[in-house]
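Design job #97: recover the sequence.
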């Protein structure tokens, strides 16, 4: 089931990003879209946090709201203890080099009129050298992400989708960010290319000490790259735990249903199957938002929204009646 709460947030001096009670809503003709509703999570230095859920669950909106694109309707987003939601445009602009983003479509996210060299080095022209990289070392950065520097004067349309994503990674790394938000970075790529990009991200994380927020609807991808995983449903947090713990012992009925849908997956106990259609984000269900599709839902789930609670050390779930931990 999907609920709220901040009990799972860590009191750790190495926390880089802390999101508390974040709400993102959009007004449209006919009502208000409740895209993200009271979501809380954190990211510590050197960690990869995977955020997973089916299309429309709010994971991409959550990621973009972290960098204030769009600005949350309510709640707070703190970076190194500084509340980003309280900053003006100019103050936020100074923070952006530290928190970069890699977008889902590697080709449309690059300016088609600019050369690869110009795309990668633009951040340096705006901000100057901030760390490891400089204009003189762009070729070295291109080599690090697997792009031949001889092709630096080519334009994006002359590269494959996988190569364009490598260019996007180089563009994100050039300012030596502390955090990179990866919004479905491999979903538009062939499976063989996906593996290359995932290996590259892991290598960049280890080599340059960057922390990642990794958004995906593919659980198998999230399992391979994440240290912790947060499962979302209709703008709410369902479950959050260390990656191995979550995949070995899923207790949320939605998480178990997602894992049961993976070909060849082994989910202990009776597999949960999703029933019914995804409710409207304009009029979400009362109480637990997952109750309309949950095999264990009761009247209590309709009346009261579950709060995030710990079921084992570091394993948190928002459910009134979670599956027993195996």
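Job complete. Output follows.
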């Amino acid at each position: 089931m999907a609920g709220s709460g901040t009990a799972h947030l860590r009191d750790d001096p190495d926390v880089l990003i802390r999101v508390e009670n974040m709400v993102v809503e959009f007004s449209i003709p006919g009502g208000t879209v409740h895209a993200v509703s009271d979501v809380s999570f954190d990211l510590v230095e050197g960690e990869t946090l995977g955020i997973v859920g089916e299309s429309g669950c709010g994971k991409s909106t959550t990621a973009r709201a972290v960098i204030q694109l769009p600005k949350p309707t309510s709640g707070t987003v703190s970076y190194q203890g500084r509340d980003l939601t309280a900053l003006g445009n100019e103050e936020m602009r100074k923070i952006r080099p530290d928190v970069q983003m890699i977008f889902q479509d590697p080709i449309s996210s690059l300016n088609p009129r600019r050369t690869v060299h110009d795309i990668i080095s633009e951040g340096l022209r705006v901000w100057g050298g901030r760390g490891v990289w400089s204009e003189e070392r762009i070729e070295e950065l291109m080599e690090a992400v697997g792009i031949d520097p001889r092709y630096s004067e080519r334009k994006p349309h002359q590269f494959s989708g996988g190569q364009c994503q490598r260019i996007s990674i180089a563009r994100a790394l050039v300012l030596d960010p502390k955090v990179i938000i990866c919004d479905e970075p491999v979903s538009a790529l062939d499976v063989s290319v996906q593996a290359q990009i995932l290996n590259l991200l892991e290598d960049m994380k280890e080599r340059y000490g960057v922390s990642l927020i990794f958004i995906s609807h593919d659980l198998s991808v999230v399992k391979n790259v994440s240290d912790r995983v947060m499962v979302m449903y209709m703008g709410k947090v369902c479950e959050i735990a260390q990656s191995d713990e979550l995949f070995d012992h899923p207790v949320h009925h939605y998480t178990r249903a997602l894992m049961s849908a993976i070909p060849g997956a082994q989910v202990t106990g009776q597999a949960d199957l999703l029933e019914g259609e995804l409710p409207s984000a304009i009029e979400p269900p009362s109480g637990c938002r997952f109750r309309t599709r949950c095999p264990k839902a009761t009247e209590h789930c309709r009346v009261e929204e579950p709060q995030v609670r710990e079921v084992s050390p570091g394993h948190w779930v928002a459910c009134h009646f979670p599956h027993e931990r195996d």
